[in-house]
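Sequence, structure tokens passed on for absentees:
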Amino acid sequence: MIKINKVSRRYGDCLAVNAVSCDISSGEIVGLLGHNGAGKTTIMKMLSGYLEPSAGAIEIAGIDLAEEPRAVQKILGYLPENSPLYPDMSVADYLDYAAILKGLEGQALRDSVRRAIRDTELYGQLLHPIATLSRGYKQRVGVAQAILGSPKVLILDEPTNGLDPNQTQHMRDLICALSQTATVILSTHIMQEVDAICDRALILHNGRLALDENLSDLRAAGQLILKTNLAQDSVEKLLPAIATISTSSQEAGKHEYRLTLAKGSEADSAAAAVAAAVLGARGELYQLHTEIRDLESVFREVNLQEGIAHAA
């Protein structure tokens, strides 16, 4: 659905985005992460056609964005961090106006506006001037304009900004529902947001794509936690396929080890081999499980590694 090929963007001497490449499939929900200034907003503006890349190419739904920007924008919905609302307009008038700008008319316009109002639960605010709305409702109006016309690609910059917990959960449910017919790129500073709804994470650091992983793979640390009565030297002899072993804790004849898997090892197969080896040595197997990392830990690791590499 989206192909980004060695895309860079300069602002004078500042290289804000540096040769980023990735492919995003139809129906994926992708979390775009990075510190302030990492290049997230610049990438989203380039995907929307608002900014042109200094180098590289972007293709969306088989359409070259540089050659046919209007064709791409017809199938794209975009919620910028600061939604460009017209404060003196009522919600209803603004959504009608936004739908006209997207090229909708007649019954298609009316149906699309109704769906957007329903999905963002704005019924009680339709006649209110946007200036009088709370921050959360203004955010919902911004999301409503983004989903007008049932876009095939939806780019959302901080979509839950200003929402209370109930509204946040509703927004998550809405994004998941929208992904049934659209590819979603979600930029946020909230790691729980990505954990809750995204299939994949892209982490930017100083304009470079530092990590591109499915969340299921990202959470796996490549390590097993083993608790047994066997001493470490016995475990080492039994498990030559394990790259390293370190002791996490020990108590009354029970030892807990962290086993780092050899490169290319698959966690389930390695766990089965570990269990068989311990039992084959007539050891007691108290615990055996894959160590799971949270996204915040991964984010810190990536930025630390990139910072060290950049300094070097």
